[in-house]
Amino acid sequence: MSMRTFLTMTASAGALTAFVAAAPAWADGKLEELKEQGFARVAIANEPPFTAVAADGKVSGAAPDVAREVFKRLGVEDIVASISEYGAMIPGLQAGRHDVITAGLFMKPERCNAVAYSEPILCDAEAFALKKGNPLKLKSYKDIADNPDARIGAPGGGTEEKLALEAGVPRDRVIVVPDGQSGLKMLQFGRIDVYSLPVLSINDLVAKAKDPGVEVVAPVEGAPVYCDGAAFKKGEEALRDAFDVELAKLKQSGEFAKIIEPYGFSAAAAMSTTREKLCAAK
Ligand code: 6CS
Predict the structure, then answer these.
(1) Does ligand 1 have an atom closer than 6 angstroms to the CB of 204?
(2) 254 CA to middle of ligand 1, Å?
(3) What's the pLDDT at 281?
(4) Does the C-beta of 198 come closer than 6 Å to ligand 1?
(5) All residues at 6 or more sequence positions from 73 whose CB lies less than 8 Å from its CB, including other chains
(6) CA of 86 to the centre of ligand 1 (A)
(7) Under 8 Å between Cβ of 130 and 194
């Protein structure tokens, strides 16, 4: 082979490598697919103010509102939401039923191993809704574990369920609750003694219930503050990276705060941490 031929081949191989390396968003084609599709299929839970579906089907809540704005800037016109239990969101994403989870799915190491999270979006502590006067004096998940009569309701596959089990509450005293309204009813009817969700979700639920027999304990003692991110399928990191570029611009311009703070979330809290830190947290 002549030197000229060798150099020509080497040069073109180098150019090809450079082209592929420089075109990550194009590389996995998912963003192009969503642009073609005209919308991104998002998994939500319908747990205001993180996510909400009105009677007319309109989707709102801080997580979908941020996602809608970011996708619009990426050239994906809209989002189409489907309601899912928290524990079913990641399997649904992996099975291709959703393009992304935008539901306040808190970043934790085991979840970070299963999906490709964006940078942080919504942060919140944990709360209890319980009978007025807190008769069982429950302030932490350990208090629930230590009281053999105490039954806690929490979302299936959700953070609060896991925190209760990790604190030592036996499985038969951790009741899976499908949604906020069910949790409130179960508390009011005495089926559970405490219902646990993030602070803003519990406050929204109890405020709307207008039931003087229910009170809130927040934050739950000993429970961490968690943050969510948009969760993408492993292997679609190029789409996640493109999402992060636009999310960072929203954060820098102040538009991120304008979207989430009316819902009660703190932009500063999300901007004070990173996916790397949250995914490494014990
Ligand atoms: O990420 C989770 O598991 C929790 N996130 C929210 C917004 N609500 C409850 C759920 O357990």
Answers:
(1) no
(2) 26
(3) 85
(4) yes
(5) 246, 249
(6) 7
(7) yes
Distance from residue 243's CA to the centre of ligand 1 (Å): 22
How does pLDDT run across 91-126, given as a tens digit for each residue? 999 999 999 999 999 999 999 999 999 999 999 999
Q: Is 104 in the pocket of ligand 1 (CB under 6 A)?
A: yes
Q: 135: CA distance to ligand 1 center in Å?
A: 26
Task: Output the pTM of the full model.
Answer: 0.90
In this structure, which residue's CA is closest to atom 11 in ligand 1?
158
User: Looking at this protein, which amino acid is placed at residue 173?
Assistant: R
- Does 153 sit in the ligand 1 pocket, CB within 6 Å? no
Residue 220 and residue 143: Cα distance in Å, rounded?
10
Residue nearest to atom 7 of ligand 1 (CA): 104
143-190 tens-digit pLDDT: 999 999 999 999 999 999 999 999 999 999 999 999 999 999 999 999
Q: Do 243 and 69 touch, CB atoms closer than 8 A?
A: no
Q: Residues 240-271: pLDDT tens digits?
A: 999 999 999 999 999 999 999 999 999 999 99
CA nearest neighbour of 66 among 238, 227, 246: 246
Ligand 1 pocket member 50 (CB < 6 A): yes
Domains and CATH numbers, the chain: 11-123+227-280 (3.40.190.10), 126-217 (3.40.190.10)
Give the mean pLDDT of the chain.
93
Q: How far apart are the first and last CA of the chain?
A: 58
**What are the backbone angles phi and psi of residue 81, rounded to the nearest 5°?**
-105, 145
For ligand 1, the distance from its centroid to the CA atom of residue 18, given in whole angstroms, is 41
- For residue 47, pLDDT over 90 is answered with yes
Neighbouring residues of 248: CB distance < 8 A, sequence distance ≥ 6: 119
Residue with CA closest to ligand 1 atom 10? 158
